[in-house]
Amino acid sequence: MHFKTHVNLNCNLNLPLPFIYYGVKSSVSLLYQAILLRMQLLLQGIFFSFLVMTIILNQILTSCAADDVHYLKCGSPFHCANLKNLSYPFWGFSRPLYCGHPAFKLQCTGEVATVTIMSENYRVLEVNDSDHRIKLVRTDYWNNTCPTSLRTFTIGCTFFDYGSDSRNLNLYYDCSSPSFLQPDSFPPKFNCSVNGTQMNNYFVDESMLANAETSVSISEILGACKSRVVVPILESEAEVLETNSTVENLKAALENGFGVEWEANNSLCDECQNSGGHCGYDPISSEFACHCRGGSFPSTCKSGE
Ligand SMILES: *[C@@H]1O[C@H](CO)[C@@H](O)[C@H](O)[C@H]1NC(C)=O
Ligand SMILES: *[C@@H]1O[C@H](CO)[C@@H](O)[C@H](O)[C@H]1NC(C)=O
Ligand SMILES: *[C@@H]1O[C@H](CO)[C@@H](O)[C@H](O)[C@H]1NC(C)=O
Ligand SMILES: *[C@@H]1O[C@H](CO)[C@@H](O)[C@H](O)[C@H]1NC(C)=O
Ligand SMILES: *[C@@H]1O[C@H](CO)[C@@H](O)[C@H](O)[C@H]1NC(C)=O
Ligand SMILES: *[C@@H]1O[C@H](CO)[C@@H](O)[C@H](O)[C@H]1NC(C)=O
Ligand SMILES: *[C@@H]1O[C@H](CO)[C@@H](O)[C@H](O)[C@H]1NC(C)=O
After folding, report:
1. What is its EC number (predicted)?
2. Which member of 43, 66, 191, 280 has the greatest number of CB atoms within 10 A?
């Protein structure tokens, strides 16, 4: 009904207006003229806005169609718990596998980002894209020197490599008291209470052992321990522990984690990014993929296959 009226008015506007040529300009005809003029302006306005909107919409739609969905998705920043603005090789949560590498799936719960490496769980404290390094802490050693399972974890060597600033800390658990009188200060002790019973434990790193004078009795003390766990810590933290072996410093050293360097086809990713693409993965070929505006390629946006 409305539509029909508009069309009719639109046609009437182009016709000579009978009232004007009768010489007597009644107030009715003036009013009619004014209404018609307004209608004309309004319709012109509507038509113009419609035209502009059509042009804009068309532009948006064509630009969307030109950019590959993988390219768009992998180019947007990804947040995971405490970690902001993550990119390749990390994925998980809102980011699909094709934007990452299978070994670098993150779990993002609350304020904690974790990663599983060789079936063991680590908190991810920091990610540095520019030097491909992350800082990790064993989840079971977070704010805890006495985990229930006393095992050394390894990160393997395929995708991760301990940073040059990592040092091994040896934690000796459930040690029996030595038969001889033990110097109070070395090796440094820490406590664990298991089922209400206090265990006697020690912590040492290699340079602490090398600096120790009474190394024969030390090896006797440490040899009487039921378990040993090797935990990597930062070199800076190890230096603090060597000069000041308090339990507080031990806890701080464990909580500050250790650095690892990642290898996830890093050089391919650099090439891909330099060619304007976003790094990712092709689950079908199980290989690296470079996502570009016009589609995905094995290494760079120019490789054309
Ligand atoms: C996010 O990361 C990208 C590339 O990694 C960088 O260019 C950008 O500046 C970062 N933004 C923020 C807010 O850190
Ligand atoms: C990341 O690594 C680069 C190069 O080693 C360094 O200059 C930069 O400070 C690091 N960024 C953070 C946040 O640690
Ligand atoms: C560490 O653990 C203690 C007790 O187990 C707790 O009181 C403290 O809040 C924890 N600190 C952090 C930072 O989680
Ligand atoms: C360990 O526990 C014992 C008994 O509760 C206490 O005397 C000792 O000071 C504790 N040692 C440390 C390093 O906390
Ligand atoms: C602690 O007690 C629980 C249950 O009583 C038992 O299953 C566990 O083996 C005990 N742990 C140790 C280290 O003795
Ligand atoms: C040793 O570390 C403790 C914290 O655990 C600190 O309070 C103390 O001042 C440090 N001592 C020295 C000599 O640095
Ligand atoms: C990417 O890295 C994986 C694992 O390190 C390796 O097996 C694969 O050959 C690499 N892909 C390419 C195209 O180099």
Report:
1. 2.7.11.1
2. 280
Backbone dihedral angles phi then psi of residue 77, each to the nearest 5 degrees: -65, 155
Are residues 174 and 227 in contact, defined by beta-carbon separation less than 8 angstroms? Answer: yes
In the beta sheet, which residues pair with residue 122? Answer: 115, 138
Ligand 7 atom showing the smallest separation from residue 263 Cα? 5
CB atoms within 10 A of CB 194: 11
Convert the pLDDT of each residue in 42-93 to its tens digit.
Answer: 667 665 565 555 555 555 444 444 578 999 999 998 999 999 999 999 999 8
Strand partners for 280: 289
Q: Are 181 and 220 in contact (CB under 8 A)?
A: no
Separation of 74 CA from ligand 6 center, angstroms?
47
What residues are in contact with ligand 1 under a 6 Å CB criterion?
A: 77, 85, 87, 129
Lookup: tokens for 16: 């000579």
Give the gyration radius of the chain's Cα atoms. Answer: 36
The residue extents of the domains of the chain are: 105-262
**CA-to-CA distance for 276 and 294, rounded, in angstroms?**
11
